[in-house]
Amino acid sequence: MMACALAVVQPAAAPAPCGRRNLSCHLPRLPSPRLPGRIRGRSIVAKVAQDGSESPGSSIVRYVKNSFNTAEDIFALAGIGFATVAALWASVNLIEIIDKLPVLPLFFELIGILVVWVFIYNNLLFKPKRQEFLKSIKTTVSQILGQ
């Protein structure tokens, strides 16, 4: 878990002197609206501190690093990587072939529109169904995150 600390810093009271290195002195100063009781400008400084707890991504990174210690795991990871690349290549080629057929893209587009309308009708159109749908989303997210 990461902790974040924010600090608000007031802008400097005196403007920086114009010198050769300061390029902002050559730009025209635009008028800014002044609101009574408000500060014209603020700078925000954010600092991140590491807590003692581990983030979920660090366990995956540690697993992959430990997997490269043994020869069997290296071959397994290489096989999974190759299978992923091959599946991606095959799916892209399949989609390109289907897209070249004259009737199927229109048919799939109509099916997609029909599925979207059925989803909207079943889950989003009426308030009780919408509340039930949002409740199921919240329970699913809490189950996935382990809360």
TrEMBL record:
Ranges annotated as spanning the membrane: 74-95, 102-120
Domain Cyanobacterial aminoacyl-tRNA synthetase CAAD, chain residue ranges per copy: 63-146
Cellular component GO terms held in the UniProt record: chloroplast thylakoid membrane
Compartmental location: Membrane
Signal peptide segment: none
Domain of life, per lineage: Eukaryota
InterPro entries reported in the protein's UniProt record: CAAD_dom, CURT1
Pfam families: CAAD (PF14159)
Keywords assigned by UniProt, alphabetized: Membrane, Transmembrane, Transmembrane helix
Protein's UniProt name: Cyanobacterial aminoacyl-tRNA synthetase CAAD domain-containing protein
Lineage: Eukaryota, Viridiplantae, Streptophyta, Embryophyta, Tracheophyta
